[in-house]
Design goal:
The complex is a heterodimer of chains A (558) and B (692).
Chain A lengths: L1 H29 L6 H14 L9 H24 L16 H12 L9 H4 L2 H30 L7 H27 L9 E4 L5 E4 L4 H10 L20 H26 L2 H26 L29 H11 L14 H13 L8 H20 L5 E2 L2 E2 L2 H27 L1 H4 L6 H16 L14 H30 L16 H16 L3 H15 L2
Antiparallel strand pairs in A: 1-2, 3-4
Helix pairs in contact in A: 1-7, 1-9, 2-7, 3-4, 3-6, 3-17, 4-17, 6-7, 6-9, 6-17, 7-8, 7-9, 8-9, 9-10, 9-11, 10-11, 10-12, 10-18, 11-12, 12-16, 12-19, 13-14, 13-18, 14-16, 14-17, 16-17, 16-19
Chain B lengths: L1 H4 L10 H13 L3 H4 L3 H23 L4 H39 L4 E5 L7 E5 L8 E5 L8 E11 L1 H4 L5 E4 L6 E2 L4 E11 L7 H10 L7 H22 L1 H7 L6 H11 L2 H20 L2 E3 L2 H9 L2 E5 H5 L5 E7 L5 H12 L5 H14 L12 E3 L7 E6 L2 E7 H13 L6 H16 L3 E7 L2 E9 L6 H10 L3 E5 L4 H11 L3 E3 L4 H13 L4 E5 L5 H6 L2 E5 L4 H6 L2 E3 L6 H39 L17 H25 L8 H34 L3
Parallel strand pairs in B: 9-16, 9-18, 16-17, 18-19, 19-20
Antiparallel strand pairs in B: 1-2, 1-3, 3-7, 4-5, 4-6, 4-7, 8-20, 10-15, 11-12, 12-13, 13-14, 14-15
Helix pairs in contact in B: 2-5, 4-5, 4-10, 5-7, 5-10, 5-11, 5-24, 8-10, 10-23, 10-24, 11-23, 11-24, 12-23, 14-15, 17-19, 23-24, 23-25, 24-25
Chain lengths: 558, 692
């Protein structure tokens, strides 16, 4: 147990430390000051290529329109590549066209930075599809999130929002590519393969011929992690020994999952010019995530329910579904971190987690803001801030203000609408699939565990996470279409509405702060924000959690 | 806030004359059109009605467990009625005030003048008057409608609106020309140009305001309503999906239980009390003799960052007083006092009188009879800025130092005796006095400067503490004065204001407000004169004095019936209190949900998965008693919080951080803990009474 705690503290503290310089770099890259060399030089080059559309400042509506147009293009291109992969190059195994609903689901999934995979890559995807459609989207979909956060922060700083196209290019080329490159090198050092040669054929000890798939894994895995994408090169994702071969590759990948979301908070703080406020937000997020990590490690320290009636002692925790090279605590840590950040890559079987451990990833996806996906996690937190500030502001007897912007009817409406939509997708989706054959017929388990599988799948889609509880036969048309729609709506509603809030705020007269205004830089605010996140964000799911993991726990765990 | 608590007119919260009609009012308000204004309670009413219909259906078909359903339905309706009751009580208090106002608005006869110049008039009914009609009002007449005096002067009893029985003087021209319909002229006569048609007079507006008839939702109230509606929607989702979840688990949840969960989860506590809080906030202002023209103005008052306060009357006592005679070399203090006293004998200004008093107290100089001395008084004019007296070849002048010196120079050119050195000395004394915050008043006799009278502004007791309190609230105070910068700075330092505007003119006052607003600040000010009107209109909160002109009253968004400029501070506190009460009860309401979940969820699902009884942390007796306790608690807490909603959460000037911590502790943590205890106690009572 001590070892587990040390491991977690080491990973979290180390990443938190690393996120500070990265946040500084990211604000340099994403929001270069006037006259700043490197980043502006890049912008100038891009603007020369991109033309006039990349040169003008956009208001929130134009920013949103550009963003949606850009994503529509991504969607069409990706859909077309997957649909036509049989006639496109780089298809040595002659993979056929992808089924329509699966194509829709996969395209939606990658455009929405979700990477929910209702397929096994090596079975259905050609190399061209993998690289030109999926891997490309892992970069640009994450870049979109970073662009949105930058625009939101600029608006809150009282400046123009910027230009979407420029922001996306900066995020892709100045942030994601270099960071992914560094991670890829590190992974290479831990033994992750990086080759364009084909599979190797090996003869096993039993004398059987075995084909071992290889490929440019390190590069793929690096962007999979840093872009909070989660879509693996291999079907089993980061449980696969060539995606995640050792303790150290596991450490690097765990850090890679969370480093950009953490750095996003600092970047936000730098752009709005309030690092102390960012520190408070960072602390709140760290506490929320840390609580889930601690709880899940605690819950996972007892063996699985299968042991309850057996006359044996097992005191190394639940090892079902774990990769033994990482141990029992690296699994729950990863499970929480990957769901906290909308990443969705896995290094253990979430289906095999003890019931209450399995609830922790779900809570992470319900809250979806600590630290959340690249860019969008901080933007989600902004929604909670709006609601928290509104309530707290009234309690000090003033019209609520955030950074001097008055929070009024419009802002509350948009923030609540975005938060409400998240619950809607998860609860209504789960309800529909729980009572119809669409869901019931695809379950591997009955009872509360089966219910958890459905709940998890919709939570994963709505949080743009992409991990699966698994144990669910989700490659069906109803699942493909339902989760595809949820992923798209759950991606763009919480992107458009915060931009609308910022548009509405920045049209107002900004107030100066005084000792009579609400401080967003102290412990009281941190407490208020934490309570808002828990009560507004999680309480809605209490009935569902009761009938899923909690019921399973009280029924089977001793 | 002590001053707020001890309002003379405040009716008891539990006055039977208010409570009894409010019970009836609670039922009258069940009218769907009334209910629809409050989204949360409207939803409760709808589900209560639907559940009732289902219950009647079950009653006819003879289903089981009707006793339990009946109790739930009963408490659902109580929830709705309690909310209506809260609003009715709040309105009832206003109505009681409106009633007494109405009594003063008797049918009046008006003397409509046929021409504004003449005095021929004909009797018409007060209600038939139109705007711009000119009426004659004589001693004993009731002023028929709001208007402006165009000719004459009269003493007027304004007790009808201010509650103050001492008569006030109203006269044409100047800043005291407005009269209010319903008040009575006690002496003399005035010609009044009517400025408000029947039905829209000041008293009519006041009645409408206190009754809440004109009540419109304020911006913050609208935003809060949206938050509450969104929370309601969230819980619609949370409960509407439960049947599907339960059906997956192979069970069914009775509708009445789902409704109970839903109603307890949605923010009914704040939803029920929201309008009562708003009405009570307005009411508090009215009790304080301030009329807000809109609820928006009250909210804005709570947001004020900068308070512009007139020096005279607000920061200092109305009148400056002579405290010292400072003669120039070669003149004795007695000589100076004698001349100053002579020039002030006929001067009826408070300053003049204070000179006479000081001369008597310090040098025993007695009052003399002006006619005996054969003296003629030279009154103060805006041009000369001096007053004085002429007798038996002697001329005495007193006035502002620069104007007296200018006068002396003109004299010396004409062969006077004002020497350069004396003038320099006088100027030095004057500067010294001004630096100390006093007003120097030069006195000259026969073209020769005798010395300077030190007039001192007396800063009101306790005002310094008020300003430091305001500073803690994050409010900056700016003193507005016509004094020169030096004097202003000294008084500003003595009173502890943050800033001052010296030599204020209507123009630079307006500019100051605009500058502050450009910096993102909300500005409050009070004023009375017509030249204050632009600034009053520009300020976010403009409090017009009731004694002021019609123009000032119309430019402001509040009217202070007592014409007491210090009230601005209390108005700010009332505004803050209003928002704080809303925020605190919202927090309380939302925090309550945790306990309610723990009461109802295990009770609801224990038949599906018996192990879930482990979530019954309160150890409630049975599923039925648990659900019933939660819904009863939810209804009773509304009643329990009505006094708080009407009284408002106490505001303390301790700064935003400590204030938030305090309210979070009381209403946030309290909101978490109280329902656990309350529900448990109700459960025990239910078991004892054998209700479930």
């Amino acid at each position: 147990m001590t070892q587990a705690i040390l491991f977690v503290v080491f990973i979290l503290a180390g990443t938190a430390l690393l996120s500070w310089p990265l946040g500084r770099y990211m604000s340099w890259a994403m929001d270069p000051a006037r006259g700043q060399g490197g980043a502006n030089g890049f912008t100038a080059i891009f603007q020369a290529i991109g033309g006039s559309v990349t040169r003008r400042d956009q208001d929130w509506k134009r920013y949103v329109v550009s963003l949606l147009g850009f994503n529509l293009i991504l969607f069409v291109v990706c859909f077309a590549i997957l649909a036509l992969q049989q006639v496109l190059p780089l298809n040595p195994d002659a993979k056929g066209a992808i089924d329509g609903s699966l194509n829709f689901n996969t395209t939606a999934s990658f455009v929405a930075n979700t990477n929910l995979q209702h397929y096994s890559g090596e079975v259905v995807m050609s190399y061209f599809s993998q690289l030109a459609a999926l891997m490309w989207l892992q970069f640009v979909s994450a870049a979109v999130g970073l662009a949105v956060l930058t625009a939101v922060a600029r608006g809150l700083a009282g400046r123009k929002l910027g230009n979407f196209f420029v922001d996306v290019q900066r995020a892709t080329f100045l942030v994601l590519l270099p960071v992914a490159f560094v991670i890829a090198i590190l992974l290479l050092l831990t033994g992750v393969p990086m080759t364009f040669n084909g599979s190797v054929v090996a003869t096993t000890l039993e004398g059987v011929q075995q084909t071992i798939a290889r490929g440019p894994v390190a590069a793929f895995v690096a962007i999979k992690q840093v872009g909070t994408n989660g879509g693996g090169f291999f079907g089993p994702n980061s449980t696969h020994p060539l995606e995640n071969p050792s303790f150290w590759s596991n450490v690097v990948e765990t850090i890679a999952i969370i480093i950009i979301p953490m750095a996003c908070v600092w970047m936000f703080g730098r752009i709005i010019g309030r690092l102390k406020h960012a520190g408070v937000l960072f602390t709140v997020m760290l506490i929320l995530m840390g609580a889930r990590i601690s709880a899940s490690i605690g819950f996972e320290a007892v063996p699985t329910q299968a042991f309850t009636s057996l006359p044996i002692t097992q005191d190394v925790g639940n090892l079902e579904g774990k990769e033994l090279r990482f141990g029992a605590s690296a699994g729950p840590l990863w499970a929480v971190v990957t769901t906290s950040t909308s990443n969705g890559s896995v290094n253990a079987m979430h289906d095999s987690l003890n019931p209450l451990t399995g609830m922790m990833p779900m809570i992470g996806m319900w809250l979806n803001e600590d630290f959340g996906g690249v860019g969008v996690g901080m933007v989600n937190m902004f929604l909670y801030i709006v609601v928290g500030v509104f309530i707290a502001g009234m309690m000090i007897g003033r019209t609520p203000e955030y950074l001097g912007w008055r929070v009024e009817a419009k802002e509350v409406k948009f923030a609540m609408l975005a938060l409400l939509s998240h619950g809607f997708f998860i609860l209504v989706g789960t309800a529909v699939f729980a009572v119809t054959p669409w869901g019931a017929d695809t379950l591997n388990n009955v009872g509360p565990h089966g219910f958890s599988e459905i709940l998890y799948e919709f939570s994963s889609a709505a949080a743009n996470n992409g991990s699966g509880f698994e144990g669910l036969g989700d490659a069906t048309t109803p699942w493909n279409i339902a989760t595809g729609i949820v992923m798209l709506l759950a991606r763009f509603i919480p992107i458009i509405l915060p931009l609308a809030i910022v548009g509405s705020l920045s049209a107002k007269r900004r107030a100066t702060e005084s000792s009579g205004t609400l401080s967003v830089e102290d412990g009281t605010f941190a407490g208020m924000l934490t309570a808002t996140v828990i009560i507004v964000g999680a309480l809605t799911f209490f009935p569902a959690a009761t009938l899923g993991p909690i019921a399973e726990h009280v029924m089977f765990m001793k | 806030m002590g001053s707020l608590m001890s309002q003379p007119k405040s009716a008891s919260m539990f006055d039977a004359r208010i409570l009894v009609p409010a019970i009836g009012g609670a039922f009258i308000k069940l009218n769907p059109r009334t209910m629809a204004k409050n989204p949360v309670m409207f939803v409760v009413a709808i589900v209560s009605a639907l559940t009732t219909i289902l219950f009647i259906k079950d009653l006819v078909t003879g289903a089981e467990g009707l006793g339990f359903s009946f109790q739930i339905i009963l408490w659902l309706w109580f929830t709705v009625l309690f909310a209506n009751f809260a609003e009715a009580v709040a309105e009832g208090r206003g109505k009681a005030q409106a009633e007494s106002l109405r009594k003063t608005r008797t049918e009046t006869q008006a003397k409509l003048l046929t021409s504004a110049e003449g005095r021929e008039w004909k009797d018409v009914s007060g209600t038939s008057l139109k705007v711009n009609d000119v009426v004659l009002v004589e001693a004993g007449d009731i002023i028929p409608s709001d208007g402006e005096i165009i000719e004459g002067i009269a003493s007027v009893n304004e007790a009808a609106i201010t509650g103050e029985s001492a008569p006030v003087i109203r006269e044409s021209g100047g800043d005291r020309s407005a009269v209010t319909g319903g008040t009575q002229v006690l002496s003399d006569w005035i010609k009044v140009r009517i400025t408000a048609a029947a039905g829209s007079t000041f008293i009519d507006r006041m009645i409408a305001l206190v009754e809440g008839a004109e009540r419109q939702k304020t911006p913050n109230e609208i935003a809060l309503n949206i938050l509450l509606a969104a929370l309601t929607l969230i819980f619609v989702m949370a409960t509407a999906t439960i049947p599907a979840f339960a059906s997956y688990a192979g069970g069914a949840i009775p509708i009445v239980v789902l409704v109970a969960l839903f109603v307890t989860l949605i923010p009914t506590t704040i939803g029920a009390l929201l309008s009562a809080i708003g009405i009570a906030g307005m009411d508090r202002l009215v009790r304080f003799n301030v009329l807000a023209m809109s609820g928006r103005a009250v909210e804005a008052a709570g947001d004020v960052d900068t308070l512009l306060l007139d020096k005279t009357g607000t920061i200092t006592l109305g009148n400056r007083q002579a405290t010292e005679f400072r003669p120039v070399r070669g003149v004795t203090a007695e000589q100076l006092a004698d001349a100053a006293q002579l020039s002030s004998l006929a001067d009826e200004t408070p300053e003049g009188r204070s000179i006479v008093v000081l001369a008597k107290e310090k040098y025993g100089i007695r009052a003399r009879d002006m006619t005996e001395l054969n003296a003629t008084f030279v009154p103060f004019t805006a041009q000369s800025r001096m007053s004085g007296v002429d007798f038996e070849g002697a001329t005495i002048r007193k006035g502002a130092v620069d104007s007296v010196l200018k006068y002396l120079q003109s004299q010396s050119i004409a062969g006077g005796t004002g020497s350069e050195a004396t003038i320099r000395e006088g100027q030095a004394i004057a500067d010294e006095i001004a630096k100390a915050g006093g007003t120097p008043l030069a006195v000259a006799r026969d073209g020769r400067l005798l010395g300077i009278v030190h007039l001192k502004d007396i800063v009101k007791g306790g005002i310094r503490e008020r300003f430091s309190e305001l500073r803690k609230m994050g409010i900056r105070t700016v003193m507005i004065t016509g004094d020169n910068p030096m004097t202003a700075a000294a008084i500003a330092a003595e009173a502890g204001v943050d800033d001052f505007l010296a030599q204020a003119t209507p123009e630079n006052k307006l500019q100051l407000i605009r500058d502050e607003q450009a910096k993102g600040k909300l500005v409050a000010m009070c004023g009375d004169g017509t030249n204050d009107a632009p600034a009053l209109a520009q300020a976010d909160v403009g409090v017009a004095m009731n004694t002021g002109t019609v123009a000032a009253r119309e430019a402001g968004n509040m009217v202070d019936l007592d014409s007491d400029p210090t009230k601005l501070i209390e108005i700010v506190e009332i505004g803050k209190q209003l928002l704080m009460t809303r925020g605190s009860l919202t927090t309380f309401s939302i925090a309550n949900d945790v306990a309610k979940y723990f009461a109802i969820i295990p009770a609801m699902f224990v038949t599906l998965y018996p192990g879930l009884d482990a979530l019954n942390v309160m150890g409630l007796h049975s599923p039925q008693s648990a659900i019933l306790s939660a819904i009863i608690f939810n209804a009773l807490i509304i009643i329990a919080l009505i006094p708080l909603a009407l009284r408002g959460v106490a505001y303390k000037a301790i700064g935003a951080g400590p204030l938030l911590r305090r309210n979070l502790l009381i209403y946030g943590l309290g909101g978490l803990v109280v329902p656990f205890i309350g529900i448990k106690l109700i459960d025990m009572a239910i078991v004892a009474l054998n209700l479930a």
